[in-house]
Specification:
Number of strands: 0
Radius of gyration: 23 Å
Order of helices and strands: HHHHHHHH
Number of domains: 2
Strand content: under 5%
Largest sheet: none
Oligomer: single chain
């Protein structure tokens, strides 16, 4: 990291604030790998857990992560051998799904690293103690922001089959993991990660279909 961030040993040579080199939770010297991955603080532990819970591909294991994985997350790709080791890549009809899984992995790891760092700065600089619900809400807001941008790009900007297929392969399994979403969810702003709106919309549509239109009474 070329000592760009003012953490850890940067503070050890300043007597008035030398204690800032240690993690207030773990008591070890703070390094970026400790802050983003190994720290026992509530934000770090919870955000990693939420990201792993959001991962919907049971046949593709969550990768072992280190600081290099996070810094190079833009180059991450789901291995064909992991997803289906018995079938060559050129014969696998699920290659589009693997591309979607790779994009989702990049989104989850990049966003979790950013949020952990942001909450760390708030905790250290502003001495803010984040609650479980606040951390979860911040995580869902970030993920749903990415989902909404993809839906807008699909329905209003790009409008081509290839990009629509990619967005479907990125998000559909994430949404299906939590909700019974409608088929046209990509055009619906109400369908979000971590909400029950998909199920509610289906129930609402079913109830509307059961409503009987009563005839108007005759005019007297």
């Amino acid at each position: 990291m070329h000592e760009v961030f003012k953490i850890g040993d940067f503070w050890s040579c300043i007597p008035a604030v030398s204690e800032c080199c240690l993690c207030s939770t773990c008591g070890t010297t703070e390094m970026m790998s400790h802050i983003l991955i190994h720290c026992c603080s509530r934000p770090t532990r919870l955000i990693w857990r939420l990201a792993k819970e959001a991962w919907p591909h049971t046949n593709i294991p969550w990768p072992e992560t280190n600081l290099g994985t996070i810094l190079g997350c833009g180059c991450l790709s789901v291995s064909q051998a992991i997803a289906n080791p018995r079938q060559p890549p050129d014969q696998n009809p699920r290659s589009a799904h693997l591309r979607g899984a790779s994009c989702l992995l990049k989104i989850l790891i990049s966003e979790l690293a950013f949020l952990i760092w942001a909450l760390y700065c708030e905790r250290v600089i502003h001495e803010k103690n984040h609650t479980h619900q606040e951390i979860k809400s911040r995580w869902l807001n970030i993920i749903n922001s990415r989902l909404t941008k993809d839906k807008i790009a699909t329905s209003k900007i790009k409008r081509n089959k290839g990009f629509t297929t990619l967005v479907l392969n990125i998000w559909e399994k994430v949404l299906h993991k939590e909700n019974n979403i409608p088929n046209n969810w990509i055009n619906m702003h109400e369908v979000l990660v971590g909400s029950c709106q998909g199920r509610s919309l289906r129930q609402h549509a079913f109830k509307e279909s059961q409503v009987q239109v009563l005839p108007k009474p005759p005019l007297s």
